[in-house]
Amino acid sequence: MTISGLRPRLVALLTAIVVSVGLLSLSSAPAWAAAGTIKEFPIPTKSAPLAITAGPDRALWFTEFTNGAGAIGRITTQGNFTVFPFPTASAGVSGITAGPDGNLWFVFSSVNQIGRITTSGSITEFPIPTTSSFPVGIAAGPDGNLWFTEDFGNRIGRITTSGSITEFPVTMGSGPRGITAGPDGNLWFTELNAGSIGRITPGGAITEFHVSTGSGPFGIAAGPDGNLWFTEFDGNAIDRITPSGSLTGIFGIPTALSRPEGITAGPGHMIGLWFTEENASKIGRITSR
Question: Which of 101, 229, 251, 274 has an alpha carbon 20 to 30 Å from 262's alpha carbon atom?
Answer without folding.
Answer: 101
